[in-house]
Amino acid sequence: MPTRFTAVYHVRSDASAIGQRARAIAVEQSVEMPVSAIEDAQILDDIVGKVEDITDIGSGVFAVRIGLAAATAGADPGQLINMLFGNSSLQDDVTLQDAEFPDALVAGYGGPHLGLEGLRERAGSGERALTCSTLKPQGMDHTHLGGLAERFARGGIDYIKDDHGLADQDYSPFDARVAAVAAALRQVEKETGHRACYVPSLTGDLGALRMQIAVARNSGLDTVMVQPMIMGLSNFHRIVRENPAVAFFAHPALAGASRIAPALLFGKIFRMLGADAIIFPNHGGRFGYSPQSCRAIADTGLGDWHGLKSAVPVPAGGMTTKRVPEMLDFYGSRVMLLIGGALLEARERLTQETAAFVGTVKGYRYG
Amino acid sequence: MPTRFTAVYHVRSDASAIGQRARAIAVEQSVEMPVSAIEDAQILDDIVGKVEDITDIGSGVFAVRIGLAAATAGADPGQLINMLFGNSSLQDDVTLQDAEFPDALVAGYGGPHLGLEGLRERAGSGERALTCSTLKPQGMDHTHLGGLAERFARGGIDYIKDDHGLADQDYSPFDARVAAVAAALRQVEKETGHRACYVPSLTGDLGALRMQIAVARNSGLDTVMVQPMIMGLSNFHRIVRENPAVAFFAHPALAGASRIAPALLFGKIFRMLGADAIIFPNHGGRFGYSPQSCRAIADTGLGDWHGLKSAVPVPAGGMTTKRVPEMLDFYGSRVMLLIGGALLEARERLTQETAAFVGTVKGYRYG
Fold first, then answer.
1. pLDDT, tens only, B289-346
2. How far apart are alpha carbons B74 and B86 in whole angstroms?
3. What's the confidence (pLDDT) of residue A286?
4. Which of residues 58-77 of A touch B (CB under 8 A)?
5. For FRET with B93, which of A183, A223, A362, B75 sits at 20 to 30 Å CA-CA?
6. Nearest CA in chain B to A90
7. Axis-axis angle for helices A206-218, A174-192 (nearest 10)
8. Which chain B residues have a beta carbon less than 8 Å from that of A104?
9. Among partner residues A90, A144, A205, which is closest to B234 by beta-carbon distance?
10. CA angle at residue B83 from B77 to B86, to 5 degrees?
11. Test mutation, A30, A44, A82, A172, chain B, max B CBs within 10 A
């Protein structure tokens, strides 16, 4: 019996055609050729995808469980997503809804270094929800971004991340930005005792990512943000493994989450590959995620799963301090609340508004 | 006046709401914060995305042209796709339909090393369409894959690529596979004078990609296949630039092309970053692409565009020898026809069926 992992697809189909369509997906995601042309019995038994179950879930959609040979994915995350959804991503009737992996596969990837508990410990936050804001807009030079960071920090925020649009642009080079923000936060710590944690965004090819993470480490930083779907899952996992003392925030850019269920991609796959925090669009903001979808992401990232550390959910995308109680009602304390633009709108009152946000989180009583 | 590139989105919207929605996308893909909170006039003028045009294209869909500052993308392909579609990929009402780039941006990326003409020259094919087949299924060991390659080569095929599922698996390690296939093809060349070109598939993080390409080069190979959306565009472009003598086939795995128009992603972006050949699902096969969509991919990849070499279209996905005349009617001679599984179904008659495919292509008279 070869080791298999299970992919769960949602497929739009007529009831009369779903059996054949399910077998076609099993072939597409494994041998990708007519099974009749395969002579080797071992390949037929061990490598060809197997339809394990088909369930009618209504509205013309079927949940199809397919067992895929773990040997086809090996130990490379890029090849894993290729086997889960490489070709089928091009077929409009299929979404990748979920996946189940054997213990050894998950253990081989290893999961988050710190997880929720580690991020809380670094922030000295105890059991409460964590707070986060964002440096933006892009186009601002590093000196001004350092100034923004200082004002967020004086408001008592836990984490300050780069906007995902900040890269290594001429108007704000990565090295200069990291130096300016790190210096600003050290100064605030010296004056107030509060140490906010800066989370710079890494971009580029693996070589650039490695240079940037070295710059961040040399400035005393221990947390970074990455965009796994843009850098490629293999490169994401590589820098996670190369930097065991670093925590990773995963940003969903380009995640095209309408075709891969976000609870799977963010809550399982990003976590398995090493995301300590998973940023996603909260319901009721600028993106169309439903409350159910957000709940599923949070539950999946935090839940007991193959012994991995938990990944803290970071609902974001147009949040405000006014929504804090409602969000804590919904998510509980195991969450990092991220408010970016709404705090920046306060302009000269940025520090006070940040303090109000932090105060609301600290003062909230969980029901 | 800052240099801008233009993104064209198709947006589902009410006519009354499209103006506001277009401005929201322009902000989402640039500064990602309330414009009212931006104090710096230069950022407002130079960095915030600008809605250049909104056209009602019917059925409740609007084409929205947005100018984005070239400075926000810099010279990194990952950051370019981030600025084009990073956050908007998470919004279900938007597809990225097209993009227009300034000369300097395209020239900086450089495009294909060889293009159609170079691939024809390597194959010694003259002006006819090129032929290609695929080594599969995965699960087969390298010795048997070498045997398959030999039989394809004896049939006179131009290019033999790996199935996109072949990686560096235990049952067929990359190094052993490349050695076995390269040796088999040298033997056929010695006996028959026909040199088929092997195109191994590279997978993994950038370090693994570099090692694999070195192995391929050491075996005398000069063409490889990559999966740009899995490896990350930045890493794709990096290995293209590091290997100026190598031709690159781009495979569409994970390209989720329903949200980014394939003519843009394959025909412009993959080409700009260095794809000499672009593989895509032909109409009437296992995938749902329309003839119009296939035509647009081919025309875009081949067309005059910023002085780049052309990228040869490779329509694929369930093609047969029977379809060759129809496909050549449709695409003309500037194409590479790829038949995989249908040839392998011939089993012991693989060489003869390959020869029949090649003969049909060579004998076709273009109208």
1. 899 999 999 999 999 999 999 999 999 998 999 999 999 999 999 999 999 999 999 9
2. 15
3. 80
4. 69, 71-72, 74, 76
5. B75
6. B256
7. 30
8. none
9. A205
10. 100
11. A82
- Contact between B165 and A82 using a beta-carbon 8 Å cutoff: yes
CA pair distance B275, B248, nearest whole angstrom = 5
Cβ-Cβ pairs closer than 8 A, A with B, add up to: 284
Nearest CA in chain A to B32: A137
N- to C-terminal Cα separation, chain B: 49
- The interface pTM score, or ipTM, of the predicted complex is 0.89
Q: Is residue A164 within 8 angstroms of chain B, CB to CB?
A: yes
Q: Do the Cβ atoms of B153 and B227 come closer than 8 Å?
A: no
Asked if B137 and A38 come within 8 Å (Cβ–Cβ), the reply is yes
In the three-class reduction of DSSP (H, G, I as helix; E, B as strand; rest coil), residue A289 is classed as: coil
Mind listing the pLDDT tens digit for each residue in A85-122? 888 888 889 888 889 999 999 999 999 999 999 999 99
| Percentage above 70 pLDDT, chain B | 99
Chain A CB within 8 Å of residue B27 CB: no
Contacts of A228 in chain B (CB under 8 A): none
Shortest CA distance from A138: residue in chain B: B31
Which chain B residues contact residue A24 at CB under 8 A? 286
pLDDT averaged per 10 residues, chain B (length 367): 88 96 94 88 93 96 96 90 87 88 92 94 95 94 96 98 92 95 98 97 96 97 95 95 96 76 90 94 86 95 94 94 96 96 93 97 92
Which residue is it, tokens 């704000």?
A172
Task: For residue A345, list chain B residues with Cβ-Cβ distance below 8 A.
Answer: 34, 36-37
Number of Cβ atoms within 10 Å of the Cβ of B20: 9
Could you tell me the two tokens for A286? Answer: 């600028």
Residue A141 has pLDDT above 90, yes or no: yes
A315-365, pLDDT tens digit by residue? 999 899 999 999 999 999 999 999 999 999 999 999 999 999 999 999 999
Report the half-sphere exposure of A147 (CA within 13 A, side-chain side).
9
Asked if the model's pLDDT at residue A192 lies above 90, the reply is: yes
**Using H for helix, E for strand and C for coil, what is the string for chain B?**
CCCEEEEEEEEECCCCCHHHHHHHHHHHCCCCCCHHHCCCHHHHHHCCCEEEEEEECCCCEEEEEEEEEHHHHCCCHHHHHHHHHCCHHHCCCEEEEEEECCHHHHHHHCCCCCHHHHHHHHHCCCCCCEEEEEECCCCCCHHHHHHHHHHHHHCCCCEEEECCCCCCECCECHHHHHHHHHHHHHHHHHHHCCCCEEECECCCCHHHHHHHHHHHHHCCCCEEEECHHHHCHHHHHHHHHHCCCCEEEECCCCCCCCCECHHHHHHHHHHHHCCCEEEEECCCCCCCCCHHHHHHHHHHHHCCCCCCCCCEEEEECCCCHHHHHHHHHHHCCCCEEECCHHHHCCHHHHHHHHHHHHHHHHHCCCC
For A:199-258, CB contacts with B below 8 A are 203-208, 227, 230-235, 237-238, 252-258
Residue pair A312/A338 in contact by the 8 Å Cβ criterion:
no
Check CB contact under 8 Å for B139 and A34. Answer: no
Beta bridge partners of B316: B281
